[in-house]
Amino acid sequence: MFSDIVGLYAAYPAWFAGSVLVIGLMVGSFLNVVIYRLPIMMEREWREQSAELNSATAAAPTPAREAPVTPFTLSTPRSACPACKTPIKPMHNVPVVSWLALRGRCAACRAPISVRYPAVELTTGLLSAWVAWHFGFGATACCAVAVTWALIALSGIDIDHQLLPDSITLPLLWAGLLAAIAIGPTPGVSLPVSPKDAIIGAAAGYLSLWAVFHAFRLLTGKEGMGYGDFKLFAALGAWMGWKVLPLVILLAAGTGACLGVLMIVLRGRDRAAPMPFGPYLAAAGWLAMLYGPQLVEGYLHFSGLRH
Fold first, then answer.
1. 266 HSE (CA, 13 A, CB side)
2. I need a surface site. Which of 12, 209, 256, 286 has the fewest CB within 10 A?
3. What spatial distance separates the first Cα and last Cα of the chain, rounded to whole Å?
4. pLDDT for the residue numbered 161
5. What does the alpha-carbon distance between residue 169 and residue 239 come to, in Å, rounded to a whole number?
6. Rounded CA separation 136/49 (Å)
7. What separation in angstroms does the CA of 150 have from each of 34, 76, 166, 169, 251?
8. Separation CA 244–CA 201 (nearest Å)
């Protein structure tokens, strides 16, 4: 039966893309949980570690009974309405469809539900299907879809908290290196690359932004980006090799600068207010993953460097 499914997907790319679309919608629902809960989990862990450190350095106080801490993970407690705290039933948690059926409101208290939730689900589904259609059935498509999911989660968290968690960036980096060893390069596709290119790409990605960070701090006394940006750039280098890094950083910096100026002009955004760079890196990396050679070729023709 498995061989029949493989044959079907290999022969009919539309079936493969459609199946990935459905899976992507479900994964998008999970990514909403990750985007919301992971930063809270990290904050709780930091607070616990800080409390342990303070208690270890201070004089031992009289033991007191501590109130039990409610577990908070990606799976517990159950998802609930932020307004009335009513647990969400499985029938009300179907990606996109439930939000439309409920007209964007809680089934219990009718409080509005942010459009962001179906937007993340739909974006994850559509981008996953796009990747599947672009690469066709095979290991490359599976790798590219997994990278897409990680980039969406990182972008959502960085937009909310200006944070790129190590628990996502580092596994993404190591997965790129391992994929280069286990799968290796395939002619005509952008990932995975050879082990040599993956290692050089990871090192070049991290060190290049690390150097820019410290040069900017020496010149201005301010920090222009966070270490999470270095790790994300290194992860993109591990998956796609060092040759694609100039394209990624040019796309990310150019898009970020244009949108930053636009927000200052149209919305009166404070120029000193920090702006997350991770989403721009993620978007540029995703475009380079699918269309890197075409983008480079188009730029060379546009600039007149190639006729």
1. 6
2. 12
3. 51
4. 94
5. 12
6. 46
7. 10, 21, 12, 8, 19
8. 9
Structure-token pair, residue 241: 């090799």
Tokens (6 digits) for 24: 């992507």
**Band of the pLDDT at 263, cuts 50, 70, 90?**
confident
Cβ burial of 190 (10 Å; 0-12, 13-18, 19+) is: buried
CB-CB neighbours of 84 under 10 Å: 11
Q: Count other Cβ atoms within 10 Å, centred on residue 78.
A: 10
Distances (CA, A) of 218 to 221, 226, 294: 6, 15, 37
SS3 36: helix
Query: Looking at the predicted structure, is the pLDDT value of residue 66 above 60?
Result: no
**159-176 exposure pattern, b = at least 16 Cβ within 10 A, e = fewer:** eebebbbeebbeebbebb
Does residue 245 contact residue 204 with C-beta atoms inside 8 Å? yes
Instruction: Name which residue leads in pLDDT, 267 or 285.
Output: 285
CA separation for the pair 210, 229 (Å, rounded): 9
Task: Give me the phi and psi of 87, to 5 degrees please.
Answer: -60, 140
Tens digits of per-residue pLDDT, 129-157? 999 999 999 999 999 999 999 999 999 99
Q: Residue range 235-239: average pLDDT?
A: 97
